[in-house]
Design a protein that fits this description.
mainly alpha; 15 helices
């Protein structure tokens, strides 16, 4: 499992899944000398999510929640709920995503884990943006989550949350806030993964459209779609390339409207 996780960190999703297919868990082992079924289930869920194999990822995540609940690893249940929220969001099911994220946030808060609670609040905010259910307090909630993550040293997650807040602010007509948060999120160009850079392009396009800069918006969208195409080509396997195309649906739709 350790080698599989290292492969996943390198972006080698196929290598990770192949290692997991050959792995044999050691029941009851939790420390040293082996790995347990919870480790195996968690890593498989992460790999399937990274590959955008969303139906399989959701099944794996639900199985992981059930496994952790049965084995008494309660602390991992809230984390798995947060993963389920992300999978539901990527699957286009914002109501379910918000339900899982809200449950995770409450669980983390009850356990005195403010950083994880901030991640869950950001996940809920993303689901609300997708579902068109933003509230008057949405921008403030996102800013508070970003500040918590930054204070705790979770720099990349703080940047992602600021990028999300920029999109929320645009959706709510707060252009100045969107400009400020997008500017603060720009280090993701160098520190983020491909999905982060694609979202930067999308948000920049939305901002330029709000400013009346249609040519600038089209350039941002084109760059984002180029990033996506390169990512799909790098994945290799046909089934991974097809599902990864979900990353570009919103970009393409925005391009048609621009």
């Amino acid at each position: 499992v350790i080698l599989a996780k290292l492969a996943l960190l390198r972006g080698d999703v196929l290598g990770c899944l192949q290692m997991l297919d050959g792995a044999q868990p050691v029941p009851g082992v939790r420390d040293g000398g082996g790995y347990n079924v919870e480790n195996l289930a968690e890593c498989r869920m992460m790999a399937l999510t990274r590959a955008w194999l969303l139906p399989e990822a959701r099944i794996a995540a639900e199985a992981y929640v059930e496994l952790c609940t049965r084995s008494g690893v309660r602390d991992h249940v809230a984390i798995a709920m947060l993963d389920l929220a992300a999978i539901a969001t990527m699957s286009g099911d914002p109501a379910t995503a918000c339900r899982f994220a809200t449950g995770a946030a409450r669980s983390f808060a009850a356990r005195g884990k403010p950083v994880n609670a901030a991640l869950a609040r950001a996940a809920c905010l993303r689901a609300q943006l997708l579902g068109g259910t933003l509230r008057g307090s949405s921008v403030r909630s996102g800013l508070e989550a970003a500040a918590m993550l930054e204070t705790a040293g979770w720099r990349r997650d703080a940047l992602r949350t600021r990028l999300l807040v920029a999109r929320v602010a645009l959706a709510m007509g707060s252009q100045l806030t969107a400009q400020r948060q997008l500017q603060l999120a720009k280090p993701l160009r160098d520190r983020g993964v491909v999905a982060d850079r694609i979202e930067l392009c999308h948000t920049q396009a939305l901002l330029r459209l709000s400013e009346g800069d249609r040519p600038g918006a089209e350039r941002s969208l084109a760059y984002g779609l180029d990033l996506l195409e390169n990512y799909r080509a790098a994945l290799g396997a046909v089934e991974l390339r097809v599902t990864a195309s979900g990353l570009g649906i919103e970009l393409a739709e925005q391009g048609l409207r621009a």
